[in-house]
Recover the amino acids of this structure.
């Protein structure tokens, strides 16, 4: 008999369909699972600004892992829990590396009211413009195009999106020169574009999954993913599950491969697995 399982899913490319939403079928299944006592939540690179509206109808009763583990998000209280900020000295070095290659990223500062202020320069590349256009009207996030700060003690994320060669070069240099946590991976919608996320030392989905499992008292952890930044949490799970549309590296490492994100595969698998208990 399976006792006290927690199910944790990545969002983009995993739980979300190709329209970047949770389908009606998946919402219905997850609501039913919550009513039956299943513990389900998300682990994502997104902030609460998009996680809250995406998942607010899914009946989730435990915190979500957001910002790749730099914080948890309490849906009921609508508050960030245990945010982990980049040390000021580390941030100064990170932003210096970006400046040295002539590219400035988005800089996320968590304000005291639990809203996110995102700084950038007025100039943006194509990928950055698309990123901004999809998020400019969010309630829990606002953008300031006044340049990036030189310092700060509440910086939680440095995020860039652009040509794969540039992003990978920055990631390699930061890996060699700092102890910050770095996640660089391809854009699932554009293989020529890559994403880079820079966090405080020790921040990753795996560490957050362990904290959340301890917090909930879970005895079994099942995770779902599709991209390279999901591999750390897949490696610490009792059961790692890749969707059929996952990158080859992710499918190879997963214990199990299920259907694609457009087929409601995550919600259907949780429903099947939970019923076995």
């Amino acid at each position: 008999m399976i006792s006290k399982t927690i199910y944790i899913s990545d969002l983009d490319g995993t739980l979300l369909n190709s329209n970047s939403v949770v389908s009606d079928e998946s919402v219905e299944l997850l609501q039913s699972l919550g009513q039956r006592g299943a513990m389900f939540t998300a682990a994502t690179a997104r902030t609460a600004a998009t996680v809250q509206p995406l998942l607010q109808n899914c009946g989730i009763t435990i915190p979500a892992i957001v910002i790749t583990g730099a914080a948890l998000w309490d849906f009921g209280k609508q508050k960030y829990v245990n945010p982990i900020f980049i040390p000021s000295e580390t941030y100064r070095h990170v932003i210096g590396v970006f400046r040295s290659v002539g590219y400035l990223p988005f800089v996320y500062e968590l304000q005291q009211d639990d809203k996110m202020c995102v700084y950038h320069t007025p100039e943006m590349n194509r990928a950055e413009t698309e990123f901004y256009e999809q998020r400019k009207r969010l309630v829990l996030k606002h953008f300031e195009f006044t340049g990036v700060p030189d310092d700060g003690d509440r910086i939680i994320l440095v995020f860039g999106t652009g040509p794969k060669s540039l992003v990978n070069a920055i990631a390699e240099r930061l890996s060699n020169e700092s102890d910050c946590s770095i996640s660089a991976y391809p854009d699932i919608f554009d293989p020529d574009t890559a994403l880079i996320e820079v966090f405080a030392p020790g921040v990753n989905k795996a560490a957050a999954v362990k904290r959340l499992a301890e917090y909930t008292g879970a005895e079994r952890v099942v995770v779902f993913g599709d991209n390279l930044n999901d591999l750390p949490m897949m490696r610490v799970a009792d059961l790692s599950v890749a969707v059929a549309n996952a990158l080859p590296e992710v499918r190879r490492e997963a214990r199990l491969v299920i259907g694609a994100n457009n087929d409601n595969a995550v919600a259907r698998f949780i429903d099947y697995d939970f019923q076995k208990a």
Q: What stands out?
A: The chain has ten helices and 14 strands.
